[in-house]
Amino acid sequence: xxxxxxxxxxxxxxxxxxxxxxxxxxxxxxxxxxxxxxxxxxxxxxxxxxxxxxxxxxxxxxxxxxxxxxxxxxxxxxxxxxxxxxxxxxxxxxxxxxxxxxxxxxxxxxxxxxxxxxxxxxxxxxxxxxxxxxxxxxxxxxxxxxxxxxxxxxxxxxxxxxxxxxxxxxxxxxxxxxxxxxxxxxxxxxxxxxxxxxxxxxxxxxxxxxxxxxxxxxxxxxxxxxxxxxxxxxxxxxxxxxxxxxxxxxxxxxxxxxxxxxxxxxxxxxxxxxxxxxxxxxxxxxxxxxxxxxxxxxxxxxxxxxxxxxxxxxxxxxxxxxxxxxxxxxxxxxxxxxxxxxxxxxxxxxxxxxxxxxxxxxxxxxxxxxxxxxxxxxxxxxxxxxxxxxxxxxxxxxxxxxxxxxxxxxxxxxxxxxxxxxxxxxxxxxxxxxxxxxxxxxxxxxxxxxxxxxxxxxxxxxxxxxxxxxxxxxxxxxxxxxxxxxxxxxxxxxxxxxxxxxxxxxxxxxxxxxxxxxxxxxxxxxxxxxxxxxxxxxxxxxxxxxxxxxxxxxxxxxxxxxxxxxxxxxxxxxxxxxxxxxxxxxxxxxxxxxxxxxxxxxxxxxxxxxxxxxxxxxxxxxxxxxxxxxxxxxxxxxxxxxxxxxxxxx
Length: 650
What we know:
Dna Ligase, domain 1; globular; Glycoprotein, Type 4 Pilin
């Protein structure tokens, strides 16, 4: 077995690989950029090598720098994680030239299946049903428009070397094709060093279901069930589960056998994933093969008991798989929620900054798992992917596993940055998701105007009001007993509290309040409420609490009867008017300014493009107007709410 391996990656996946290597008694080497000098994966590894400036194009995806780190440390093998160099054939070749093992598939398989254009051609030649599209190279936006028109809208514009939603756009018309083509090329070049683009038909109402395969160099290849990955935003997976609530056993077997046949056709070894789209009649179509470990691999591990990273290492060491297809059994159900540094209240735009609070729920073997690469007090950088953790739960059935996920999300504390925990909670509590009724259009259909918080049912509103009254009663009682105000007799309790919550006034009598485990200063309140387990995030305010629960974020006021009378007379403070300004929604770099001072712009017109965390974000006009002043230029870095341009009425 290898004595030392280098992980050519960062963040949670580097930490994940290090954990398994330590379990196997293998020493590990981390690599890091200037931005990651104090990162968790650096402290977890036995050794660490600095490889350059923050941008990935100058550090993590520079093959020569990784090879230098391999030579310096004497690493015998390299695990690439996902993204970065994981699907770069030239990296595997460079390692082979040095006599260093690549913990991944052979170069031939990477070249054949890692390139999405080539893989689709090979799949078609093998008789695999594929989505209609154009697999040739596309020279420019004009050619892209012609191809899209021939295929028929809507179309999917995709990076040939892409993955993780990078370099991918859906276009419904000619304008979106032109804009999407250039943005996809730019993202693909920045993320993968390869700007080739292809176009295929976008199948509406599809499910995204993928098969995990695992092969060795002794001729063994198995599939380990499927993962349902239909909950996506901007083609990036958000919540995954295994198995799929949609497949029957016959379809599962057919998809698995086809995935294995495709893997065998290219002599595939190591872990890989064959992705399909599945229609409402359970017809499935090959999309692509990812020749690497997938982000969502933990859910497969939870239902099969197979440590995929360990098997990748053993296969790279020349060992045979210790099981055959008949040995693979699916046990229970598992979910994975991806925690992103993206603010759902700002259109899911990236957020960076310091994690002033980062408290994941306690991990419990085979029940709650959190793969992460950050820590409280650490920084979220603008240079890398915004995913900071993967929260996973398991249960003997889907309903149990999902309830475990809902409670775990409620218990996950993150402060200091914008993040998508409220959105994850809202989806996990959505009736359609609970019923397993989802397609890749779920988020677009259920949140067409963006996310503004989950709807609060009357039952939950009343429960939260009673909890808030209980916390205020506790706060009131404690206040009577501190700062020299001890009394011989306890003060008379308040008979009723008036709670202002979600625009509703609720009077809670003393016998109806709910007491949890909360005490002043605690950030979570947990307890059984009407036989239902609740974990509520709590932040005390002057006259009440900020409560966050299941995707809601509420400023709750709790008054005595007299206080409520006086509060009703107070004027409401209005926010400043920013309707005539375009504000930068996140820290980022201005890529292009599309208008000039004096231009008349229409609603929906592209005004500028801002790049952050490897993604380009087009900012559009909210209404018709005249550009009166432009305060930024291409290449300039901006902070949140910096004024990019100002407008006058048209």
